[in-house]
Specification:
The chain has about 375 residues and is α/β, with parallel strands linked by helices. It contains 12 helices and 14 strands. The protein is globular and about 60 Å long. One of its GO terms (molecular function) is nucleotide binding.
Amino acid sequence: MNAAAPIRTAVVGAGGIARGIHLPALAGNPDTEIVAVADVDAARARAVADEFGVTDAFTDVDAMLAASAPDLVVVATPPGAHREATIAALDAGAWVWCEKPPALSLADYDEMAAHEGADGPYASYVFQHRFGSAGRRLRRHLDEGTLGAPRVAQCHTLWYRDDAYFDVPWRAKWATEGGGPTMGHGIHQMDLALSILGDWSEVTAMMATLARSTETEDVSAAIVRLESGAMCVLTNSLLSPRESSLLRFDFDDATVEVEHLYGYDNSHWRWTPAPHVDASQTDDWLPETDEASSHAAQLRVLVDAFRRGVRPPASGADGRRSLELVAGMYKSAIEGRPVRRAELTAADPFFGAMNGGDPDAAARAFGKEPAHA
């Protein structure tokens, strides 16, 4: 393919996340051309395609892949459909950019990854908070060692969802969403935290269903030990009226904080030197540019990787890390003990399902009556 030619892109799923975020990001990127939209609802697929000036609309992913031959497929379906659409696209030779959470389980994630080629196509996942300028600058500080070692961190996703939110049939069900706020909401901030702090080694978690009528938890909390020795405290809630997404990183030489809701720019960040740090040492701490975290920002990085034929960020082991932490949190909360990362092998029941294959045990751990009691 001519390197200057637009990347032929198809979108699977024509719901709110596609119409409101993915399609505008694609339409605004000069390197991507939207060639098809697919959705199980034919009328919705056609309406969204018309809205964005796309000729082809489909109800079947395989038919779309055969007819449109896209280079890149954006998977914007509910989580339960991620695995099948991703595998179909990879097998057709297309790169994939899939919404979070990547998959319902580590087993599904690894199955999807097995359909990648050694040199592509690759499947990457929507973790857009990594790609704002401040997040990128902080990662560079870690690479350069300019702030010292990370010691303590906090990562809190405190959101509010009322009862009506859960009327959508696939939400907060093990079979279709894979979990509650730990899986579908807090994973964004946890991914950003891990992209800064690196791999984790052990987690101790508690979860509960306190106020919403769901199969899953509506709150979770955890303490995570990182391989570096640093400690991180996590909270995920859908019961918090003053919504906030908050991360704080305490390094030897600085505290770096961000508080936002669904996306940040540089103004949301605060950089505080330690008392022993001379102010002249902080002149180049801040980002050189101001780019908000967004799907569009991640898309630009993905397009660059596609052009160069290299694995993009938030794919492979780098895309798996936060999902693995989620699995460890569920295992810890349901079994009532600390869990080491090394336990999450293919033989572990939490490798195949976030509830360990036992929804009744999960219900008891979350303070509910088991459905089959």
